[in-house]
Write a structure and sequence with these properties.
The complex is a heterodimer of chains A (about 110) and B (about 180). Chain A has about 110 residues and is α+β, with helices and mostly antiparallel strands. Chain A has helices spanning about 10-25, 30-35, 40-50, 75-85, 90-100, and strands at about 25-30, 55-60, 65-70. Helices cover about 50% and strands about 15% of the residues of chain B. The chains are: A alpha+beta (about 110), B alpha+beta (about 180).
């Protein structure tokens, strides 16, 4: 059996969504889909089951559903530590996340 | 004449009793629990019960069917009620603290296990601390005004979670609300 990527959270999408959220703090399905290079439907499915399992939470910000690792999850600290270790093995994902601009930019200033 | 709708408290008691009779251990948490402890200062339509022990879907369906709730996707609903019942994944915890002691609410022959006022307060405060949710702060204040909560426990838990300043805000809100209550 050839295992291309470790997926301790059930499948590769769930695992990589968690790793991406641990790097970004917050994100939304379309952004995650772009970063993880996986179809939107796969990311939405992963978010749905992670939410059902209590690992992530989502809330509406405007018209976008923004997700984060559940800060009230009973093993949040241990989960974060595990994800920090897992993301060491995901250089491509780390690199993709580093390309995401999060700092503010004055309205009207050219990109 | 229109029949009066059962209160959230009455429905929670009915569900709690049905689960108990089915041998299912369940504790009411979340907004419904906060609503009961705040005596209606906050209203909720979803009842979140955290289960412990091994519970099969069949036994849960059967227990809920005994009080006319049926499963619709991931929740249980009853046509004549606005409330729905969910069973979020356990364990029973407030943040990383799983050392909780639920209390029992009794009414007639029915009983319901639910978070203590102190833990319900902490549960709401967690939302205030993490998301600056002022509604949760208001509910936590309402609970603290109506019950003797364990202040030391709330303070140490808040401080350990890096929310010492937010706890002081909560404490000040309770004091302010108490002073407004006095004649």
């Amino acid at each position: 059996m050839v295992v291309l990527r470790s997926s301790p959270f059930g499948n590769a999408n769930r695992t990589r969504v968690l790793i991406a959220l641990s790097l970004l703090t917050q994100s939304y399905a379309r952004e995650l889909s772009r970063l993880i290079e996986t179809p939107l439907s796969g990311i939405q499915g992963a978010l749905r089951t992670l939410e059902r399992d209590g690992l992530v939470v989502g809330r509406m910000v405007g018209r976008t559903r923004v997700f984060e690792i559940n800060p009230r999850y009973f093993a949040r600290q241990e989960l974060e530590q595990f994800l920090v270790r897992l993301r060491e093995e995901e250089p491509e994902l780390r690199s993709a996340v580093e390309g995401v601009r999060r700092r503010p930019r004055r309205t009207g200033k050219p990109l | 004449m229109k029949r009066r709708e059962p209160t959230l408290r009455a429905v929670a008691l009915e569900v709690g009793q049905a689960l108990k009779e089915a041998g299912i251990q369940a504790v009411l948490t979340g907004g419904a629990c906060a609503s009961i402890h705040s005596r209606g200062a906050y209203s909720s339509i979803d009842l979140d019960f955290v289960l412990s022990g091994r519970v099969t879907q069949v036994s849960l369906d059967r227990a809920m069917a005994s009080i006319r709730f049926h499963r619709h996707r991931d929740r249980y609903v009853r046509e004549d009620l606005p409330y729905f019942v969910e069973f979020p994944p356990g364990p029973l915890a407030v943040g990383g603290d799983t050392n909780l002691a639920p209390v029992v609410l009794r009414s007639g022959s029915r009983s319901l296990r639910l978070l203590s006022p102190t833990d319900a307060c902490r549960d709401r405060l967690a939302a205030f601390y993490h998301w600056s949710d002022r509604q949760s702060l208001a509910v936590a204040v309402a609970i603290a005004l109506r019950h003797r909560v364990l202040w030391k426990r709330i303070r140490s838990w808040s401080t350990a979670g890096g929310a010492g300043a937010r706890f002081e805000e909560f404490h000040a809100e309770v004091k302010r609300a108490r002073s407004e209550q006095r004649p």
